[in-house]
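S., here's the first fold you wanted:
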Amino acid sequence: MNTSRDATIVNAWWERVPGERYWLDVTDRRGWEERLASPRATGRRHDSCALRLITHVKEGDVVFHYDASQQAISACAVSQGRMDKRHLSWAPTGSTEYGDHWVRPSWSIGLRHCTPLDEPVSLYEIARVQWDLFPRLRALEDEAGFELHYPFEMGDRRKTRPISGYVFKLPAVFVQSFPELSRAASSVARMLPSRPGEAPAHDALAVHPLAHSR
């Protein structure tokens, strides 16, 4: 997908599209079930869009979790409270979750209703469906005007894997394409209030403007 623009700019295209309230956490940080988090820059350094993307998560958004050990999307939760700054423990890049950790300044927002999926969505299945979904994603990117901050590499199905990062925007059209994700999102959305200009939260998947237009 398009990555040719300033690396510090977040293209918040979803803020113009009702029903776009889905995210993917790709970290294996301890306590991911309770808080969505991403490291942040300090001092004179500026956060890249990969780090600042989490600051666009709003209370009541639906957050899916990708489990690297399973190579699958394995859980679903709802964000709660306000984004804040705190120091959190992270495993150094390339180490195991159970090895040495170090504390980093981080962005963080609470999670509730964290629930394992009845059937995790495997990376193999993601690669298979994503191949057919590519024209819709490209059309969505054209409408968005720039990159989608999409979480998975595109192209060769055999090389599909999460892009290096922490939190990504998961387009509603992606969630719609996997029955397990759609069911999980609808289940947690029934507990959420509607937002101004949107259909009831549990109906959002059914009315996404790109769902049936391509």
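And the second, which I think is the more interesting of the pair:
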Amino acid sequence: MRHYLDLGTHKFEGLEEFIKKFNLGINDNVYCFEPNQQIYEISRQSDKVIMYEKIFHTFKHYNVAIMNYTGTISFNSHDGAWLNNTFINDYTMGSNCLDINPNYDPGNGAIFNIVPQKINCMDIEELVSSIVLNDSDAEIYIKCDIEGSEFVVLPKLLSSNYISHVKSIYIEWHERFWYGKPEYQNKINEKNSIIANFENYGIQTFMHG
């Protein structure tokens, strides 16, 4: 069966896009992961949840961050942001699990109001292996929009014994969070290396966002 992993679900915007792109339906399993508790609770109240539970073979929605290990992690939740000298109360984009804890987004200039939280996280390898051990013919498709954590999560995925089950991956890259820091060029190099490694496995890799 096909298994669609939505890493960084937010309010199902990416899932809506991929329902059309892959014609997802009753024969497909969908797993959504959103670490931001506020966004998770808002999206759980959406009528879309009831619809997804009906139209997919399996629909799971977790308030969990996908990382390179299972446990807990510090989450930099954004409870509003200043944009063009105006505070936007419902700005939640860019919330992340990064050690560097960026206080603004160089892409749009938003200055984050950061509220640290402790949240649960799950190892990408554990997720993929659990799928394949229950479905030896699994075909896995991934959308990855995890606000900079792709630089630790994707190398772990590439090292998985089940990497051959991944058919394509759509990634939004966030090297911009290191812009102006000594690590910025390293992140660009890491990004290019990760893409090359996916391609070496024959896995289609696309830019998302």
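Why I say that: The CA atoms of residues 167 and 203 lie 5 Å apart. The two ends are 26 Å apart (CA to CA).

Talk tomorrow,
H.
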